[in-house]
Amino acid sequence: MKKFLLPALFAIAVLGAAPAALAQKMNSAKMATNAPAYKLQTQLSTLGWEGKAVTHGHNGTMQFTTGELLVKGNAIVGGTVTVDMKTLKATDIKDAETQGKFVGHMSSNQFFDVADNPISTFKIVSVTPLKGAAKDADNATIAGDMTIKGVTQRISFPAKVGVKGGVAAATGKVTIDRTKFGLTTMSKSLPDTIADKAIYDDFDLTFNIIAKN
């Protein structure tokens, strides 16, 4: 519980400054040039995932390894984060043997092929403010390049961002279509997949990123 409570408290404190951060135009790639880099705090940042099959589902965590958020004034204007795919685990599976089998399956070349693709990355290319966003709601659209299993795709998603007191934070949820990254095993969209064994194409990532100057 403490592992997730502390990052949440940091995010609440920083994201309270979101309206000031959005006072600047944040979607210009030019703003990221020479912007100070705030270092990702791996112990304060969290990444959760959730995937579902027709008959069941699992959720768990992965760990950020390195990263930075680029800040101009009070606005996040860019950045990159890296995820260690070897840290993937299902927190809803309590039995050690079942956990090992699940992680092994997800790490195989049928899915993330972790041996040959040990990291995934996301590089921010734009942060665009959402006009009229409520105080506690998402206040920006982040667009960037996601690389999973060696395949890079441009994605975008809403998030809440803010900068305050030398700390930058971004939190939100993004839905990923795994088939766009070559993860087609047991896809529900494939005609030869057995119906009750199918895994849905979409999975969710929930992130809470903290970076310090």
TrEMBL record:
Residues 1-23 form the signal peptide. The keyword Signal applies. Residues 37-212 form the Lipid/polyisoprenoid-binding YceI-like domain. Keywords: Signal. It comes from the Bacteria. SUPFAM superfamilies: YceI-like. The keyword Signal applies. Pfam families: YceI (PF04264). PANTHER family: PROTEIN YCEI. This is Lipid-binding protein.
